[in-house]
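Journal club side-thread
Mid-discussion, someone asked how the predicted structure for our own chain would compare to the paper's figures. Pasting it here so we can look after the session.
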Amino acid sequence: MLRLLPSGRPDDPDNTVQCDIDKHDWVGPQSGPGPCPQDEGYIFMLRQQGTPEMTCLNGSVLPTIYTVLEYGQSRTAGAITCDSEPSGMTCTNTATGHFFRVSRASYQLG
């Protein structure tokens, strides 16, 4: 699920995208005192400024304000665009070149 915050205006320094994945086959990196439990989901976040972030859901309930992007759809918040494909979700900040890709099979931060 994907959340775009807040305004989507290109000049808004608070533009953020967040993608939460609940079910996955990969083992994530250390987060906090240890790795997230395998049955725990992850939050991927990309802001207008800065590098991509990845954290454990930590039992968070996924909010209903998220948008579910169907395959072939995209959404934009300022310089950040997210594309949903059968191979996974990719969010890229065209101003900085930072990105994340996430699917059930793998993830990548850059």
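Post-session note: The mean pLDDT is 78.
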